[in-house]
Amino acid sequence: MTDSTDRLAQLADDVDALIKPRELGQWVQPDRHDPNTAALPTLAATRASGFYWPPATQARLGVHPSLLTQLEQLRDGYTAPVSESGGGRTTPGPRFTGGADVADLVVEISTGTTQLLVDALRDLRAAQPTVRAQSLDTRDRLRHLARIAEAVDGKIRDRICRQIHSWANAARLVLSYTAPMATLNKPCPYCGQQSLIVRSDASSDVFCTTEDCTDGAGERPRWPRHLWPQLLTSTSKGA
């Protein structure tokens, strides 16, 4: 698989994460307990043969909103779902203030997708690129960028891939899906700069952020968890 193919595959994943709800349903394996001896025989009988959660009558319980939808909800406040007990009336839920970082990110994604699409359409010599880009909403602009990325100039394609990946990561960070990056108090054994970073919850590899720093294989230095002891005890270049 080429680097370009990898980038386009990552772009598709990032766009899906930003605009598509995720299905969280799963098959629950059969319960080994005997229904005849259970405190709740009816429930036990259902579990005995296995079942899919959530049930079809409560399908919304298995859908997780997209990252962009969650950002918009956090910015604007939540509304409680329609009551299942009748009445069909939506009642206001508690409003949660997302803060300036959430609002800024929503605006950045909106304006950024407009500019990216204008530049991509100009590269493809499309008529009235600005009008076309502004006529679409943010989600449609993201979809369109994913569709035409392979056809545009390589530099524009790289911008599209890098920027949308950055937005997806920023959304996960704001929504507390991922921990922020932290700088280690130790120089990189290859470039000597204090440029080693890792997620603050230690959930990522350690890697060097110096632009032209490479290891013995010519790659950006990176240390998975099992190599951290080696990194922490290294003192010489090329460790």
Protein described:
With 239 residues, this protein is of the alpha+beta class. It is 43% helix and 9% strand. The protein has eight helices and eight strands, in the order H-E-E-H-E-E-H-H-H-H-H-E-E-E-E-H. It has helices at residues 3-19, 41-48, 67-76, 100-123, 129-134, 138-148, 154-174, 228-233, and strands at residues 22-23, 26-28, 51-53, 63-64, 181-183, 196-199, 206-208, 222-223. The strands form three sheets. A four-stranded antiparallel β-sheet has the order 5-6-7-8, with no helix packed on it. The longest helix has 24 residues, at 100-123. The two termini are 30 Å apart. The model is unreliable at 78-98 (pLDDT under 50).
List strands and helices in order, with pairings:
Blueprint (H helix, E strand, L loop, with lengths): L2 H17 L2 E2 L2 E3 L12 H8 L2 E3 L9 E2 L2 H10 L23 H24 L5 H6 L3 H11 L5 H21 L6 E3 L12 E4 L6 E3 L13 E2 L4 H6 L6
What is the subunit organization of this protein? single chain
Spell the H/E element sequence.
HEEHEEHHHHHEEEEH
Total helix count?
A: 8
DSSP strand content: 5-15%
- Number of DSSP strand runs: 8
Mean residue pLDDT = 78
